Amino acid sequence: MKPYKVCKVEDLKSGERKLLTIEGRNIGLFNVKGKYTAIKNSCPHQGAPLCEGRVEGMTVVKKNRELEYIRDGEILRCPWHGWEFDLLNGNSIFNPLKCRTKAYKVTIEKDPVETYPVTIENEYIFVHI
């Protein structure tokens, strides 16, 4: 997998996203509470621009039948039909073993261009395809 420098760490704040095209692939890069994730910008249901959907959490029923809102900022909802996906791994919420969208490896690295002895102060986000 070849890494692509896409932006500086400080350019993508927690809760933000950046839509990218790398080698003809449409990808959404997300900062999920300081963890950077990248997924294919296409819903497996009908090809909607998945990464343009709302990022939220989900409500679950606890054993005592109370509702609890969990995973705030980790769930991406498709803008067309509301299908939900885990931003941390690309799996669908309703059927994670059979339905998912492609998740890409994301790393934080120092700027790799060093032609002279220098001190590197800026970090960049790389998406590996």
UniProtKB/TrEMBL annotation:
Entry annotated with the keyword RNA-binding: no
Rieske domain residues: 4-127
Q: One Pfam match, by short name?
A: Rieske
User: Looking at the record's lineage, which domain of life comes first?
Assistant: Bacteria
Sorted keywords for this record are: 2Fe-2S, Iron, Iron-sulfur, Metal-binding
Q: Which Gene Ontology terms cover its molecular function?
A: 2 iron, 2 sulfur cluster binding; metal ion binding; monooxygenase activity; oxidoreductase activity, acting on paired donors, with incorporation or reduction of molecular oxygen
Keyword Metal-binding recorded: yes
List the Gene3D superfamilies hit by this protein, alphabetically. Answer: Rieske [2Fe-2S] iron-sulphur domain
Recorded protein name is Rieske domain-containing protein
Organism of derivation: Lysinibacillus macroides
